[in-house]
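User: quick one, fold this
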Amino acid sequence: MNVQRSLKPACAAVARTLCALAAVAALATLSLGAADHRAPATTSGGLGASEPDAFVRPLSDLTEAQRALFELGRAEFGQRWVVPFHIGGEWGRGPFSNAEACTDCHAGTGRGRAPERAGMPMQSWLVRLSIPGTDPHGGPLPHPVYGLQLQAIGVLGKVPEEGHAHVDYDERAVRLSEGETVWLRKPRLQVGGLRYGPLEQATLTSARVAPPVFGLGLLESVPEAVVLELAAGQREAGFEGRPNYVRDLEQDRSVLGRFGHKANQPSAAQQAATALIEDIGVTSRFFPVENCTQAQRPMCAAVPSVGSPEIPDARFDALVFYLRALAPPPRRDRDDPVVLRGERLFEQARCAVCHVPALKTGTYPPLPQIAGRVIHPYTDLLLHDMGEGLADGRPDYRAGPRDWRTPPLWGIGLAGKINGNATYLHDGRARSLSEAILWHGGEARVSRDAFVAMQRQEREALLAFLRSL
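Assistant:
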């Protein structure tokens, strides 16, 4: 039998310490305006830019108790989950899953990657599902048999997997100034091997690659008023950044969406709980019921559930604290003349309208010490119409079929160096930063066209700037 470990006593002791710290912390009243983007960064963990652990370091000013909780959370992030009563991990995975651990999709807490060629199976990549219409809270309506996500792993001999997905690619050339050519690949999603019946023609599908997870606490601490102020300012500039409002399960109300490719998650905690239940099949206080639809429950009943929930609150809270306290990597080559030129071109091409260089954090009880910081995530946390070329046809709360949240750019220059996963955009179709830019349409077409028209040296400077982030 698997020997089950218990972190409850340690987590509870750390949690009591943190509560005491929070109770006596005096939090300053902060300005809600966006900060000067040339202010010095204050969010790094004090590490070298090329170190292999650049994405897994804590914020530099954690207390001793917070560091202890961070390490407990790190263990949870790497925890292997297995089907009861197998060996080799913690009991609780399934009945349906796509992975055994958070690190399967977020290696080094970085991004995942799309399949490199046609026919490759899902790895750090998934398929979201829904049918036309909305649920009672305005969210996507789950498929009645397959739910909100296609699961490629079941339980051998008891619960068949739901099905498999792969992509084929269509390629086309884009000509830039001075004769340069960039090839863009567009994925065509293929779903097969369905074990519980066909997907109706009206089923909406969307391939997604796992995003990086560092810096979540810093993004969560940006006041909603700052995000709304950015949206108002963009309207005056001719852009249409819009907030998504989504269901917060803890507060039982609609709140600002911050995380996920369509800003469909309100908090780091709900994001983590959703990943646990959808990707690994582990129940939590957010989702206490196994990830089986009504049509699948007779088969799912053959798999025992261990614990209710399968991840206890103390361990779940440690995992969430780890995600909140992960530091984004610091900038590199800040004073390089080519990088500085690229930064100016980034602004001139109006990329900085949506990829906002600097924001200011507000009051944040989970990490009181980060209040009032200037951070440099290069995002506005808003939805933007990115054009038909990137459309998935699948709405998500207020996010339309062509809408995507502006992804943070911090750490993007290290993507390939940390875990080898240097593919970009929501489905990983872009194999280079140039490809990612050239897919920009809709509101971002003005920036895309500016990049196309640049001289080769100017494009190289802009890319050098991006690689410095």
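User: anything notable?
Assistant: The chain is about 25% helix and 15% strand.
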